[in-house]
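Worked example (supplementary).
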Amino acid sequence: MKRTIPGLRTLRRLYATFFLLLFLLLLFAGDFRRMQGYDIPLFLELDPLVALSGFLTSVTVYKGMILSLAVVIPTLFLGRFFCSWVCPLGSLHHVTGLGLFNHRPSASHAANSYKPMFRWKYHLLIFFLIVSLLGGMQAGLLDPIALLFRSLTVAVLPMLDGLGFPIYPRTPVFQGGLLIATLFLLILAANRFMPRFWCRVLCPLGALLGILSRFAPLGIQRDVDLCSHCNRCLHHCQGGCDPHAAWRKSECHLCMNCIADCPEGALHYGLPKSRSSIHLPLDLNRRRLLETATASLVMLPFMRHALSSVTTDLPTIIRPPGSLAEDDFAKRCIKCAACMRICPTNALQPTLLEGGWEGIWTPILIPRIGYCEHHCVLCGRVCPTGAIRAIAVNEKIGQKPFDTPIRLGTAFFDRGRCLPWAMDIPCIVCEEVCPTSPKAIWYRPVTISNRDGVSVILKQPYLKPDLCIGCGICENKCPVGGEAAIRVSSVGESRSTTNRMLLKANP
Amino acid sequence: MSQHPEKKPPQKVQATWSRRRFVERMGVLAGVSTVLAAGGLWIRGSEPVRHRQEEIFKLKDFRVPESSRHPILAIVHGNHVESMVREAFNTLGGVARFIQKGDRVLLKPNVGWDRLPEQAANTGPELVASVARLCREAGASQVWVTDVSLNDPGRCFVRSGIEQAAQQAGAHVFLPGKEDFRATDMGGKLLKVWPVNRLFHQVDKVINLPIVKHHSLSGCTLAMKNWYGIIGGRRNQLHQDIHTSIVDLAAAVRPTLTIMDATRVLKANGPTGGSLDDVVHHETILAGLDEVALDSLALGHLDLTPDKIPFLALAEARGLGRVRWQDLNRSETQV
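After joint prediction of all chains, the assembly is encoded as:
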């Protein structure tokens, strides 16, 4: 018998291909004219790191996040199978590694054996979990599913569309897209030097699954009598888990390449036999971990005493409709960009530092790029964590049984730029496009004597703030280029109890 | 020093040049130099950037010849849109007068907004479907439905019901993307060259399908104003002289026929509407060949009079039609 369980590698390849294609299909087909946001967040809901961080920040496992148990429970028994069988970013790294890394035997044996550097991911995990425990969701920065979703949405899909692949009716643009693209290319390029550098060294989800798999009864077992120490098992090893020596359970992705590559049939996946080699536990130093934990403990207090959207109501932080109040939003948003993928007008954009370091890559509405479509609620439908609540259309527009619409902010006229106000030119495009009924923008017809002494009738626009929902279509369609003559600011947003101006609107 | 004699590496030397090799090489280099000099002079120009000359299109006249045997306006009241459309066509001389076998026909409803049919911000889907079906029956090879929406086009066409209705009636729906506009000479007082939805240059007949609606700047949006929906670019600047713009557009696009939807009429808060309280049911369609007369006639549905609407007189002065629809040959029927 050459293989104890023939075909495990083939099975893994089938699973990995299936899940990568499913991920891309959900990403591609989610828009309004296709699947209307259906199950775009499936992979984010399967992600135990998102579920755990969310639980630590806000003591709930939101809706579909319970699906992450479908990864957690099998991991307890089987080991870290997610990384090579399910994770689309893992599969992408696997393929990239095959292409970029030079698999000469000497090079791959050196690159694929365990290195102390692999501990970094556990330190990153500790950092993210402690920050979460104190109320700040930062895991999305490096969570592999959020990272992949964000990179594809903000950088890769628009790039492909621009090259001529028909993905969108209108090619979207994203601010800071190049930064996200560069980071994505860098982690892919790291496979040039070590296959699956990301998965082995940086991935905090991999670290979490590694810890969960600690007590798994099943594993890769090496028969010390049959093994001839040829090291071929290292040749295509994905985890860097030393199957040729003392196997490291928490590092292994169960890619099953070692079993398929072993000429002696010395390796099998299952329970140990009488002559199976020993395994090594997690390679962690308690003192180093304590140092990381201590540093993490003070990070959030530092963040919370710097200017950010959590500490101050900022005028440009206009969140999508249904967003939680900013401190709760910071506890939930994992920066996955699912809302930006689904937004039909390209209005939702990733922040850079507008909301402070804490808010990096969270969604804001930039009215000059797009506006909030009055009857659209897709961003809340696709948000996996509930940072944007799943709202119904009648709740958004304030129809029965709801009394008031959801407001994102309030629009303000800039009379120095407005054509009828400053230049005696008729316009009121803002009034035309205002979607509320009755319209928040209204006008007063005035007869004025212009520069040449001719009397002209002008309709000068005004805004009734308690009718304005801050959707931004007025700013978007304003014919005054550059800075518009009417601009939305976040004041008056429904989600905040402090960012208000009207006495009557107080709850 | 001397006890370490310098170790010289073996030195390689070049081959000498034969006369033949020299002459050949000089010939090739002279040839390359000549081509470079000639090419340089050829591509030399006085402009810093050379743009490809963009072709400027002109819209053709889609009208059919006038006929004194048929009325110019048809007013049809009723509850069944398809019968009303058939009646209107029959009154005006039959579908065959307007659509020949093999024609490519373009329908231009108002699909500007992400609204439901009952909110009356867009042309009714039943009207679009009925006209499409009649054109297909008359032998049109293709029937297209298009508009340049103000809200997200995908949502507008789906939620207005027009996409589904048109496709069921055998028409194609076309949502223009950014590549789908052609620079077009509008020949207007205000509008010179504007990007126009390319379909208008690729069809034989155009039928205007506006809805009767309130509009705060121009007072109303009817047949002539519906041509806003064929242009791209920064068309929100047209508000700065909306009456001249409307007349320029109506002068540039001369449709085969206009069929106006006054079944549901949005009387206030236009052109977006939203509240059913602003919608009244007049259960009428107005069809005809004179857009000015039709617009003037439709004012009755909005409680307006022609003297309040400057673009009507401007259009008449431009020779586009008659404001006094009462003077024209018309028929009013109930089906």
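Two points are worth noting when inspecting this output. The interface with chain A takes residues 114, 150-155, 158-159, 175, 177-178, 215-217, 234, 236-237, 239-242, 269, 271-275, 278 of chain B (CB under 8 Å). Residues 181 and 198 of chain B are 5 Å apart (CA to CA).
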